[in-house]
Amino acid sequence: MASRDSMRLRLQSAFILLAQHSHQGKAILEVKHNIHGWLQVCDSEHKYPIIQNPLLLDFNHLWRAIEYTLAEGDSWPTEADKQRLKLERLIKQRAEEAELRRRRFVVVK
User: Which pLDDT band holds residue 2 (cuts at 50, 70, 90)?
Assistant: First the structure.
């Protein structure tokens, strides 16, 4: 886990290793969210920073983008929340359909 202070050094060394092993000149940054897993870092303008030269990076902006990404991940529903909402919608839909059937049903004497 990288802290704000060690992030610059770790990004630079990771970028050097990436360039040596894959011969790529750019990289994307992902952070691990404790619920949703790996998320690609994006800033508040929903731009995904592509690292081409770690020496020229604005690390304050990148750190804010990391914090924003993790905060966005916190606001997303978990799988349990999704299942609960799906069940609530299904129950509501069935209740509405039952109410419509009751209104249309007429007892003839």
Answer: low
